[in-house]
Design goal:
The protein is of the alpha+beta class. Helix content is about 50%, strand content about 25%. It has helices at about 10, 15-30, 35-45, 50-65, 110-119; strands at about 5, 65-70, 75-80, 80-85, 90-95, 105. The strands form two sheets. Strands 3-2-1-6 form a four-stranded mixed sheet. It has a two-stranded antiparallel sheet with strand order 4-5. Strand 2 (about 65-70) and strand 3 form a beta hairpin. The model has no long low-confidence stretch (mean pLDDT about 90).
Length: about 120
């Protein structure tokens, strides 16, 4: 069964990708250092604007539901991206609920049309 999903980079967008990855990396490093949530939030506010932080949070929410697999035009399961991590090269990556063997990337517009059609 094919898993259709929008790539997380397409959700974030080219104009915000560098800032987004920087925020994710900041949070991951802070968590590795066992900093408190208050310390992490304080650090975010020192390094990023409120607008950047809100856009980051919005994109994270969108990433959680940006894919699906279906049977006869009925969604069986929604798919998404979750839990960011740094790979061995220090690059930001995300785990996904879409199987790597059956994953097919789609555009955000395709996903939105399918979701709208199903409602």
């Amino acid at each position: 069964m094919t898993h259709y999903i929008v790539h997380w980079r397409d959700i974030v967008g080219d104009e915000f990708i560098d800032t987004f990855k920087s925020i994710v990396k900041f949070i991951l490093v802070a968590e590795q250092k066992s900093l408190s949530d208050d310390a992490i939030n304080s650090g975010l506010l020192k390094n990023y604007t409120i607008e950047q932080i809100e856009l980051y949070r919005s994109k994270i929410r969108q990433m959680k539901k940006c894919g699906y697999y279906f049977d006869s035009m009925k969604i069986i399961k929604e798919l998404g991206w979750f839990r960011p991590y740094l790979n061995h090269q220090g690059k930001v990556k995300f785990m996904t609920t879409a199987s790597p063997d059956s994953r097919k990337y789609i555009q955000h517009e395709q996903y939105q049309k399918f979701i709208d059609f199903g409602n």
